[in-house]
Each structure stands twice: as C-alpha cells, then as structure tokens.
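Q: what sequence does this backbone want?
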C-alpha cells in the first residue's frame, strides 16, 4: 500500500499537470497545498487521515489567499485588456441611429446587430458616438 505522504505528492503532481492542461490559475494553489500536506505527512508519519485533510484544507485556504493577493499586487498585463468586455470595446465607435431616439430612447446599428440606445432625441440615419454602456444599453452622443 502507498504511503499517504506519497499519495499527497502524487495528487500535487496530478493537479499541476491538470493546471497545465486546462490553465485557470487556480489548481496550482491547490497543488501547492497537496504538496505541503504530502511533505508534512512524510515528516510526521503519525498524522492521521483527518489531520491530513485538515492540513490540506488549511493550506488550500492559505495558498489561494496568497495567490489572490499576488495577482492583485502583480496583475498580468494583456495585449487586449477589453477582450471579454464587449460593451467597453464599443465606447468611442461611431454608429448610425436606426430607430429614432425619442424621449431619450431608440436603437442604433452596431455592426450587424441593433442595440438599445439612450441619448438626445435624434432622427434615424444620424451618426452618433457611443460614450458609455450600461448592461445592454448604449449611451450615445451626437458625433461632432
């Protein structure tokens, strides 16, 4: 039968490989906790399974909190920081009003789709600039 310390180390390696296969920057912290648990289990063979699970749980919390703090203090720069924020990517674009903006509300064409727009009253066909986004509603202003 395999010693529990080696089982924890094997779990750490498996979690590390899983992190490489499906990068999410999360399993690495759990892998660290499993590795620490394995080392402690080898150093202190009298640890029982409940104690090992408690150690693993405690180190999981610690490593995740340290990891979150690290990524807050040292964020990863991106070539396209707005990649997953479609609304923010639209700000500054010039679009055309397709349904007159009356009473502060109308529709504009963005690419091949139409979006609800809020802004000054304007007739269809007017070119406007997107100045803000709130959910699925675009704030527009006259394109001067």
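A:
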């Amino acid at each position: 039968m395999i010693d529990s310390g080696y089982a924890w180390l094997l779990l750490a390696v498996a979690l590390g490989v899983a992190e490489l296969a499906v990068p999410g920057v999360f399993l690495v912290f759990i892998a660290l906790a499993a590795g620490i648990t394995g080392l402690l289990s080898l150093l202190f063979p009298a640890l029982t399974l409940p104690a090992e699970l408690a150690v693993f749980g405690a180190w999981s919390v610690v490593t995740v909190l340290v990891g979150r703090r690290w990524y807050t203090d040292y964020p990863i720069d991106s070539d396209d920081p707005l990649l997953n924020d479609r609304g923010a990517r639209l700000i500054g674009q010039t679009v055309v009003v397709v349904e007159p903006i009356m009473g502060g509300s109308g529709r504009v064409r963005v690419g091949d789709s139409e979006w609800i727009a809020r802004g000054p009253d304007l007739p269809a066909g007017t070119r406007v600039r997107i100045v803000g986004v709130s959910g699925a509603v675009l704030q527009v202003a006259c394109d001067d």
